[in-house]
Specification:
The protein is an alpha+beta fold. Helices cover about 35% and strands about 10% of the residues. It has helices at about 10-25, 40-50, 70-90, 95-100, 110-115, 140-155, 170-175, 210; strands at about 60-65, 115-125, 160, 185-190. It has a four-stranded antiparallel beta sheet with strand order 1-2-4-3. The longest helix has 22 residues, at about 70-90. It starts with 9 loop residues before the first helix and ends in a 26-residue tail after the last helix. About 25% of the residues are buried.
Length: about 240
C-alpha cells in the first residue's frame, strides 16, 4: 500500500479545477487534420497517461494500437467507409440521421488517412498478463471508457486534436491490425494537429443544473440561487 498525498487547500482545489475546466472547454472534435507530423514520443506519453486510469480489480483491460503507416491507414479508411455507408443507407433510422445531419457528417472519412496517427483502442475480454492469478476481467467497458477520457484530455492539453470514431461493426480493425481474438475493437481515435481551415460544429453544452443534482434531486445552488454555477460551455468571446 502507498500513502495518499496530502490534499491541496480548498482554494487551491477550486483554482486548479477551474483552470482545468477552462482548458477543457475549448476541446472540440476535429474531422480535418493537418499533415504536420506528431512525434511518436507524444503518442506514447498520451497512452501512458491513459494507462493511469482506474480499472476493475486493476486489470487494466485495454490495448492502444498506434498506427502511422500510410498504407495501413488507407486500408482502415476503406474498410471503415464500407461500414459507414451501410449505416447511412440502411442501418440508421430517420431520427439518428437527423441528429447526425446537425454535425455535417457522412460516410466519407478522409480524416482516417489525413491524421498522422490513428489510435485504435481495444478492450480485453480476458487478462493476458503473464503473471496473472486469474484471467478474469471486470467492468471492462467502464474501465476502457475512463482510460479513453484521460487520453482525450491529455491530447488536448498537448495541443492536439482528436475525434472519437466508432464505425460499427469494428471487427475489421482487429483483422487489419492482427490482434488476438480476446481483443475487441472499442474506439478509433484520429490524432494530430487541426488543419489550418478546420471547422467544428458550434455546439453548446448542457448547463450544470441539467447534468448535476445535489442530494435528493436539488439543483446545485439550491441554498443560494444567486450563486453562479460553473459552465461546461466556454463564455462567448
Amino acid at each position: 500500500m502507498k500513502q495518499v498525498d496530502d490534499p491541496k487547500t480548498d482554494q487551491n482545489a477550486i483554482d486548479l479545477a477551474t483552470s482545468f475546466l477552462d482548458l477543457l472547454r475549448s476541446r472540440r472534435s476535429v474531422r480535418e487534420f493537418s499533415d504536420r507530423p506528431v512525434p511518436q514520443e507524444v503518442i506514447e506519453t498520451l497512452i501512458a497517461t491513459a494507462g493511469t486510469a482506474p480499472s476493475g480489480a486493476n486489470k487494466q483491460p485495454w490495448r492502444f494500437v498506434a498506427v502511422q503507416d500510410t498504407e495501413l491507414k488507407r486500408r482502415i479508411r476503406v474498410a471503415a467507409e464500407v461500414e459507414e455507408t451501410k449505416l447511412y443507407e440502411t442501418r440508421a433510422n430517420e431520427a439518428w440521421l437527423k441528429d447526425l445531419a446537425r454535425l455535417g457528417t457522412n460516410a466519407r472519412k478522409p480524416f482516417l488517412e489525413e491524421a498522422p496517427w490513428l489510435v485504435v483502442v481495444f478492450k480485453l475480454t480476458r487478462d493476458d498478463e503473464p503473471n496473472r492469478e486469474t484471467d478474469q476481467v471486470y467492468y471492462v467497458n467502464e474501465s476502457v471508457g475512463i482510460a479513453i477520457g484521460l487520453f482525450l484530455a491529455a491530447a488536448h492539453v498537448a495541443g492536439l486534436s482528436t475525434l472519437t470514431h466508432t464505425p460499427s461493426p469494428m471487427k475489421f480493425l482487429g483483422e487489419l491490425l492482427e490482434r488476438p481474438a480476446h481483443e475487441r475493437a472499442y474506439m478509433l481515435i484520429p490524432v494530430g494537429y487541426p488543419a489550418k481551415d478546420a471547422m467544428s460544429p458550434d455546439i453548446k453544452r448542457k448547463p450544470l443544473d441539467r447534468i448535476m443534482a445535489l442530494d435528493a434531486g436539488r439543483v446545485p445552488n439550491a441554498s443560494d440561487p444567486t450563486r453562479s454555477l460553473p459552465s461546461s460551455t466556454a463564455p462567448s468571446s
